[in-house]
Amino acid sequence: MGEEADIDAEVLIAGAGPTGLMLACELRLAGVDVIVAERLAERTGESRAGGLHARTLEVLDQRGILDRFLAVGELQAVGHFSGLWLDFESFESRRRYPLNLPQSAVERILEEWAAELGVRVLWSSEVTSVSQDSARVTAELGAGGDAAPRKLSARYLVGCDGGRSVVRKVAGVGFPGTPATMTALLGDVELPGLTEDYIFMRRVPDGHFSVIALEPGWYRVITSEYDHVSDRDAVVTFEQLRESLIRLAGTDWGIRNPRWISQFADAARQADRYRAGRVLLAGDAAHIHYPAGGQGLNTGVQDAVNLGWKLASVVRGRAPESLLDTYHAERHPVAARLLQNTQAQAALARPGVQTDALREVFAELITFDDVNRHLGGMISGLDIRYPAEGRHPLAGRRVPDADLKTPDGATRVYELLHTARPILLDLRGNAGLAALAARWGDRMDVVEARSEDEHWAVPSVGEIPTPAAVLIRPDGHVAWAAAASGAPDFSALRAALTAWLGPVR
Ligand SMILES: Cc1cc2nc3c(=O)[nH]c(=O)nc-3n(C[C@H](O)[C@H](O)[C@H](O)COP(=O)(O)OP(=O)(O)OC[C@H]3O[C@@H](n4cnc5c(N)ncnc54)[C@H](O)[C@@H]3O)c2cc1C
Which residues are in the FAD-binding domain (predicted)? Predict the structure, then answer.
């Protein structure tokens, strides 16, 4: 297969959206030769998503690029669950507040980072067909027009090509779920007659509408109606948006000058497997849902960060291919829960007196701190815990960003993760840990440090005594931790090192 290809790479990514770009960067950090094939000729500047949540901000902090996003976004004090306000004030994270930032800005910053890391992006390159054998995967790239298609051969292909993923279809992966039951129209417009600052999910008998300020003079109008399901392939017109706004709001506020009009709905579907041989799926290609609470892009970026280091490890021949199956095992349940919470939010958004009553009950419940923290942990991604061996409360969770003192000076846990390498953090100076880790050679870093705090605050858990040692995966999740007192369990550490870094040669 390889000899016939016009282009070769170790990994091919279909789609230069947020998921594909993040994955490409993760792979490049591990030195993998990666190409991104993107159907579009250039960026459109359109923005579906409007923000990033705490766990995504933490992930960007783990790579040392968070400041680029903070420099252009705006931190918000609150988030929401189907329009009911959530308060993130007491969350156990340095990055607890959501960041308002258009998707186009997220893509631009990721693209700049990808260029710095040497990612090759092929624009005007639509993946149209895929075949694989036991050694390689070959994709045909259509250039559009009369240009001849090219063949690209790689060891792995990751479909990050959005909700209508061609890669998912040609790989024969099922996409079960539920169809749309409503129609939402969206337009970025001028509204000269609007006198209110903004309107968020105002409920009326036939649906609800929002008007959100984007930048001086510009607003995003969203109308949601429940009496019909539109054809998702049809082009939405300005007139349709205006009429929908009049139906729901009773006025169009002089709506004019649309720069983008689109539609979305509440279909909820998930790929039944995230891996089919040498083909993997991530982001919207693996899951679509009602965009309530702003979670889709966040989940895609976090899919990429879970998959990147595993795929790099397999490509480098350090870990067996079975490591890739942990990607499905860990990320499929996360998106299944995402589909569930967005379906619950969709149910809470429907018009009708019974829903009004349900919302009243929810609005009361959400004022209880435990409920606020439970829903906020879900929306922010801070409560994610992957299946993990061991009884330590950190096992499988994301490591807190604790302040540390090392022989080289003060640092933070997330600064240690900038290189995207596994880290054995020894917080009690146990020589046995470094001796055991040495058997894995240069596959990881051992860092001896002291924590500045006697306790670490962990979302969904509370305060725990600072552990004696932690094995941290490149994605920031804890593979093994030793309790504050008592001898570390060396055999469990050996098992964790073997499982996540591959066997000792
Ligand atoms: C109204 C609305 C608001 C939203 N708000 C939020 C929010 O606030 N927060 C949030 O987290 N999420 C939000 N989302 C969801 C978010 O926009 C998506 O989850 C996100 O774009 C998914 O990123 P992705 O990279 O997986 O896919 P996409 O962004 O869809 O990117 C896929 C890329 O692949 C390319 N492509 C497609 N087919 C091919 C092919 N065959 N070959 C090569 N390239 C191909 C496309 O051109 C595109 O560039 C919102 C969605 C909507 C509709």
Answer: 9-342
DSSP class per residue in 428-477: S--HHHHHHHGGGGGGSEEEE-EES-SEEEETTTEEEEPPSEEEE-TTSB
Determine, yes or no, domain membership for 390: no
What's the pLDDT score for residue 4?
67
pLDDT at 2 over 50: no
CATH code, 225: 3.30.70.2450
Range of the structural domain that residue 206 is part of: 182-264
Q: And the tokens for 67?
A: 């400041």
How many Cα atoms are found within 13 Å in the side-chain-facing hemisphere of 414? 19
Indicate whether residue 324 lines ligand 1 (CB < 6 A): no
For the stretch 272-306, pLDDT in tens is: 999 999 999 999 999 999 999 999 999 999 999 99
Q: pLDDT tens digits, residue range 44-61?
A: 888 898 999 999 999 999
d(CA 289, CA 271): 12
Q: Confidence band (pLDDT; 50, 70, 90) for 146? A: low
β-partners of residue 425 are 447, 470
Q: Does residue 49 line the site of ligand 1, with CB under 6 A?
A: yes
Measure CA 461 to chain center: 23
Residues 45 and 133 in one domain: yes
Ligand 1 centroid to residue 494 C-alpha, Å:
40
CA of 297 to the centre of ligand 1 (A): 7
Q: Which amino acid is at 241?
A: L
Among 7, 39, 338, which is best to mutate for testing ligand 1, by the most ligand atoms less than 8 A from CB?
A: 39
Q: Is residue 395 part of a domain?
A: no
Interval between CA 288 and ligand 1 midpoint (Å): 10
Phi, psi (5° rounding) for residue 63? -105, 0
- Do 135 and 176 share a domain, yes or no? yes
